[in-house]
Amino acid sequence: MTLILNTWIFEKDVQNGTSQVDLVDRVRKLGADGIEVRREYFKNFDSELDGVAKAAAADHLIVNYSVPDVVFEDDGSINPKLGQYFEEGQKMGISKIKFNTGHFDNYRGNLAADFAKFPLAAIKMNVENDQTPVSGTPDAIYTFLEAAREAGLNSIGYVYDLGNWAFTGFDAVEAAKKLAPFCDYIHLKNSMLDAEGNMTTTADLSKGMFNWQIIVSYLPKDVQFALEFPMDNDELIASQIKLFNDAQN
Q1: Does the predicted model carry a pTM greater than 0.90?
Q2: Sign of CA dihedral 13, 14, 19, 20
């Protein structure tokens, strides 16, 4: 199994000034296969994109790119920034780029023609179930991905984000069954109610409302997995990597 570490894991360090460039070697030392960098964590794109590319190449790590933006604007038009995001990804040598779907329900264009300008042969584009009513429902994601398949856009796939189903209230197992044919990447995190009754992401995959091992059994096995939840130290991160690896044996 290929295991990626999303840099949300290091949220505390990033808030204290650690660059994602510096996190690349740390990910290698923790024994993961790759790093998923988050666009909102970059401070200086000119230097850091190149820095991530060089560090990842030196460490032989996969690089994925998480972009907190939509594919389709409110009026259904394609986000004019997508080309820029792909260019940023190319500078880092990424294998996957992840967006939220947005308002595909208002789209009236030709998918094959509109996406021909993006480097989909080199970079796998994925959409994720987020925590919104627009992009976080199984039906909305299925509708877009089915249309993409019909348009011959087989390089557009799906990131199954386990923890986010807790925030939208949809059945995580049923969503896995429905979206499995499109699944290319799995984000692992768990969720639970805190003392105030608010839904929160846990710091331990084995704690929370989801039995992650049962749920991923409904999803493809030959895809990348990512741990994506904040952890306070490398010992905890290592324990979660072990938890994941042990479950594969």
Answers
A1: yes
A2: positive
